[in-house]
């Protein structure tokens, strides 16, 4: 990152902080929600900077925790998901894949070849590396929901749903 870009970001943060109000203690929030029987919601969605879930799902502040990674793949999200469940007692998991995703324009072999070309030797040093290329978001979102439901207790104790966002219209549809 250039120094000027970082300086610009830090300047905007300073401006933001002037109007920031503290969200309050996390433990107080968790305890209040637990005693009210409110379970947490997590959204797993793509890192694509064009499509923040806060925007296309019109989320209210504090409404859901969000895990973002390349493609919104659930295998990639497992550590965060189980940690969030331990902290916040999850009741709903929403997986969102989307059209025109960067993970859909190259296949698994293509990702491997591009990465190997930029960083020779990386494939040998990370033999288990799976990129999670997306063939069709309506297929992969089903695979990813099924993967989460295969976790002990997840399918029984939580609502796990899969949506596909049309990147260009902004509409989501429930696939599973
Ligand atoms: Zn994407």
Automatic annotation (TrEMBL):
Q: Which GO terms describe its molecular function?
A: carbonate dehydratase activity; zinc ion binding
Q: Which cofactor does it need?
A: Zn(2+)
List residues binding Zn(2+): 46, 48, 98, 101
Q: Which residues form the signal peptide?
A: none
Keywords tagged on the record? Lyase, Metal-binding, Zinc
| Keyword Metal-binding assigned | yes
SUPFAM superfamilies xrefs: beta-carbonic anhydrase, cab
Q: Does the keyword Zinc apply?
A: yes
- InterPro entries in the record: Carbonic_anhydrase (IPR001765), Carbonic_anhydrase_sf (IPR036874)
Protein EC: 4.2.1.1
Give the reaction(s) catalysed: hydrogencarbonate + H(+) = CO2 + H2O
Protein role? Reversible hydration of carbon dioxide.
Q: What is the official name of this protein in its record?
A: Carbonic anhydrase
Species: Lachnellula suecica
